[in-house]
Specification:
With 204 residues, this protein is of the alpha/beta class. 18% of the residues lie in helices and 20% in strands. A hairpin with a 2-residue loop joins strand 8 and strand 9.
């Protein structure tokens, strides 16, 4: 099986804080304000469905906090891992000091890139951390690293929205997205079968 996920932000304190209308996500409703509970909860959810031989595409922003300490948490997550870099991933070119981070990330991922394309439901699907348009902030950021808007269906993260249908040919697979209508539990990786169903539902 192939799975997709994005924006775990493992060990990121602010991502799970209840800050009212200014909260980044709704994760505090599940894990309270505990960074550790959120982190290990996401890992437990992952391992409840992913097997060692499965392929998992991480579409960016995997770990936060003290990255040298949080990055090894990926060894606790099952599956063969491929990483589409997000703006919070140290090797992403938007960060000025990528240094030797590529080597450190390659200890946990068998492939790392900025974008990729695979076939799902008989058509080419683009993979990128960023959507064609839209952001978790008021203005679209990282324009130089967003994919060119084409006829491709795009799987993306970055926006921390609960919506999986993020706009024309944009499918949000971040861990905050709600895929319950496709039988996927909240805060779990998204199986390729659910992506296929979403593409067919939208008629893409």
């Amino acid at each position: 099986m192939i799975y997709f996920r994005s924006d775990d932000h493992l060990m990121h304190r602010n991502i799970c804080l209840d800050q009212g209308d200014k909260s980044y996500t709704q994760r505090h409703k599940v894990w309270g304000d505990s960074t550790e509970d959120m982190t290990y909860g996401l890992i437990e959810n992952h391992n409840s469905v992913v097997e060692d031989e499965d392929m998992v595409y991480f579409l960016g922003d995997v770990v936060m906090g003290k990255v040298a300490e949080s990055l090894p948490l990926l060894s606790l997550m099952k599956g063969r891992k491929r990483l589409i870099l997000g703006n919070h991933d140290r090797p992403h070119p938007c960060n000025k000091k990528t240094g030797n981070w590529f080597a450190k990330y390659y200890e946990y991922f068998e492939w790392i890139g900025i974008q990729d394309r695979i076939e799902i439901a008989g058509r080419k699907v683009a993979l990128c951390h960023f959507p064609y348009k839209g952001d978790s902030h008021d203005k679209d950021r990282f324009g130089d690293y967003r994919p060119e808007h084409t006829s491709d269906v795009l799987l993306h993260g970055h926006v921390h929205s609960e919506k999986w249908d993020f706009g024309e040919r944009m499918i949000h697979i971040g861990v905050d997205s709600n895929w319950l209508e496709f039988g996927v539990k909240r805060y779990h990786p998204i199986p390729i079968t659910a992506i296929e169903a979403a593409i067919k539902l939208k008629g893409y």
